[in-house]
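Late entry, written up from scratch paper. The run itself happened at the end of the previous shift, but nothing got recorded in the book at the time, so transcribing now.
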Amino acid sequence: MKKRLQKWRIASLFAILALLLAGCGEPFVSALQPAGEVAQRQFDLMILSTMIMVLVIIAVVVIFLIVIIRFRRKKGDDTIPKQIEGSHKLEIIWTVIPILLLLILAVPTVTATFDFADTKAMDKKDKDGKTKDALVVNVRANLYWWEFEYPDLGIVTSQDLVVPTDEKVYFNLKASDVKHSFWIPSAGGKMDTNVDGENQFWLEFDSKKAEEVKDLFYGKCAELCGPSHALMDFKVKTKSRAEFDQWAADMKNVKKPSAEGDLAKQGEEVFNKSCIGCHAVTPNDSRPEQARQAPNLATFGERERIAGVMEHNEENLKNWIKDPEEYKPGNTMTGTYKVSDEQIDALAAYLMGLKVEEK
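Output as recorded:
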């Protein structure tokens, strides 16, 4: 008896913990706090399906209780109840009701699925071959970082996706090595990025919801892709359309940055000898995709995180340069070059000064 009580206590404790943890999370990374049309409709479908399931459970439990109470065997009553082999009325009822419930769930689900897959706006081009009335972003997933290319704007960024609010943003999704999955929990998704072929979909970011999280959302890889899969994060910065246009203009006008200070100039020399083959330091990078083997660092000094997961400060940057394998096992940067502690200090000073919006 004591052992049973102990088991029930442990089970109850785990149930309470699971309930508490289910409520944990931040609004900028929670699918249960939608911040756009896609996420809201997906959330509404989850609520609808949950309500249907709860309704069915309640109905079954009520019928079950009525049957076992009303038709239970009573003491001294040995009569055999009337045997009913079938009831057309009951059979029709328990056949029609599930069909109706499935239709209630299926119709909005199918409708939403086709709406989310509607990317015809991406095919409307002007005479210069640019998309007419839509913002298109090419997303390329790599081990373990993200690249975002704005083909109609001539801009390439990494790790930080910048989008306007209150309008549809269309995405071309692909991968350069293994299968990944693009997911911004608060905005909707997710969708696979494949090595062969492209997937397309759209998202919309609500300006009011964006204000609540200070215009910063988090994105993740949702497909197990290697030892650092859990560390393959990116940030989404939202702006009004006017602010986005200004950002795009600033990014397009960026020239090769000039280092300020002796240490940063030394770092620039080290960078040009050791890092420039893979990394770029201007967002208007015209190199072909195959040559972009590492994240674009044009806005490195403005980022929220180092390597997508570490707090953005000079000490963490030095640790990352010195031993990237410790922080992201299996990354492609490990072992590509060797630099001294003095060179690491200089590189850190140079990289922290790479800014476009903040001067």
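Residues 37-70 form the longest helix (34 residues).
(Scratch paper discarded after transcription.)
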